[in-house]
Specification:
It contains one helix and two strands; from the N terminus they run βαβ. The protein is of the alpha+beta class. The protein has one domain (about 5-40). The relative contact order is 0.39.
Length: about 45
């Protein structure tokens, strides 16, 4: 997997459960295309 993940929490505190769910969803992206280079998530 070549994903460089960047998660930014703005206006809400950092929740481990949210972070974990985001990482689970991002890991599924590798199944669609193995050459994804980055992903940014803001919440």
């Amino acid at each position: 997997m070549q994903i460089r993940l960047q998660i930014t929490f703005r206006g809400i505190p950092h929740y481990d459960a949210v972070d974990t769910k985001i990482r689970e969803k991002i890991s599924k992206l590798d199944g669609f295309h193995s050459h994804i280079m980055s992903c940014r998530v803001w919440s």
